[in-house]
Amino acid sequence: MHARTRIGQHKLNLSISFLQLVTVLSGIVMVIFLIWEPQTEGVNRSATNFEIYLQDPFLILAYLGSIPFFISLYQVYQLLGYTRQKRVVSTQSLKALRIIRHCHLITIGAVIILEIIILLGPSDDHTGGLAIGLMISLVSLVVISLTTILSSVINEPL
């Protein structure tokens, strides 16, 4: 192997390791946010942890809706590993891309349900929740588009 090829492979491995680290850190930040945020709401100031986390149907739905996000992050981590192993064009990569796409479709469905709950709720200020839901949906649509494009590129015969 030539020195340039080794250096290029080393840089690629460092880049993939960095992206895998970012993926793991994203998951950790999201878990921290999901645990911390409900405690900051004014309604929950005097509530117990049981009341905050287990008696709020909206929060329970939000937690269930976040499961596909974490599955998707794991699949991204796996896909980066396949890239490091030079197995980008493989059935495992296609499966990971399909799972990522399905997770984001489920995420959009969960967001729609949560948005309906927000709209039908007693609050007169729906703007914040609707804006967050719209941003999550737009990001999911971008990810769905990217995974669809990558899947078609991988499936094309060379």
Report a brief summary of the structure.
With 158 residues, the chain is mainly alpha-helical.
Notable features of this structure?
0% strand, 158 residues, mainly alpha
Q: Would you tell me the overall average pLDDT? A: 87
Low-confidence stretches: none
Domain count: the total is 1
Count of DSSP-assigned helices = 5
Strand content is: under 5%
Secondary-structure element order, N to C: HHHHH
Please tell me what the overall shape is: elongated
Number of strands: 0
Fraction in helix = over 70%
Overview of the molecule:
The chain is mainly α and 158 residues long. The protein has one domain. Helices cover 83% and strands 0% of the residues. It is built from five helices and no strands. It has helices at residues 3-40, 49-54, 57-84, 91-120, 127-155. Helix 1 (3-40) runs antiparallel to helix 3, helix 3 (57-84) runs antiparallel to helix 4 and helix 4 (91-120) packs antiparallel against helix 5. The longest helix is centred in the first third of the chain and has 38 residues, at 3-40. It is elongated and about 65 Å long. It starts with a helix and ends with a helix. The mean pLDDT is 87.
